[in-house]
Target: Peptide ABC transporter ATPase
Amino acid sequence: MLKTQDLGYWYQTANEPLFQNVNLTFDVGKSYAILGHSGTGKTTFLSLIAGLDKPKTGEILLEDRSLKQIGLTNYRRHDVAIVFQAYNLFTYMSPLDNLLTAMAITNAKHAGDKAYARQILKDLGIADDQLTRNVQHLSGGQQQRVAIARTMACDAQLVVADEPTGNLDEDNTRAVIAQFQKIAHEQHKCVIIVTHEPDVAAQCDHQFRLENKRFKQLA
Ligand SMILES: Nc1ncnc2c1ncn2[C@@H]1O[C@H](COP(=O)(O)OP(=O)(O)OP(=O)(O)O)[C@@H](O)[C@H]1O
Model:
């Protein structure tokens, strides 16, 4: 579904590339973890496949069309959903309005369907009385579940997450990873997670380690 072809990237301020000649394939129905020491370039890689930045060399292809052809704005709106460590919800809205707004912005199949959005949030353990209260009243774990619910309510086939469990305790981490597995296996999406935590990575279907400018497949 998603392929990188001879992908390379460096920041102008650095005198060497972060990674080069990266050729990876990611499929729908699978989850992938990207591990690696701090500063190796995991977030940078994720920002390229999320269409937030452009590669310096090589290409990223979604179903054989390059992101250049698709257009980054178009790609970000329709093809990719992003989950951040810091949740990045609309903080002045309720969980329900967060989902409905994202569905409207991305012109999702279920846009405007309140019952659908409610059900997703309820399935993720957001209680009835929390659905319409400001998200800032929720705990970190609950806010991250709302961020995940948002990716489930939208149609993007690719879900990328940068340290999604970085702020969570063990129980919430387990719940969040189980949910990502459901998104991959039941919604048939492709999930790519950057994480420092080997335990989190071990629960994904495949693992890569970014080391010495290369991605090594571990499993
Ligand atoms: N905008 C930027 N301009 C210049 N250098 C940057 C920029 N963003 C990141 N870097 C540098 O590029 C390298 C890779 O950063 P990146 O955030 O991708 O690493 P990471 O593997 O995700 O790290 P961590 O696990 O600590 O989040 C680091 O050395 C970082 O300092």
User: Anything to note?
Assistant: The chain has eight helices and ten strands. Residues 11, 13, 18, 36, 38-44 surround adenosine-5'-triphosphate (CB under 6 Å).
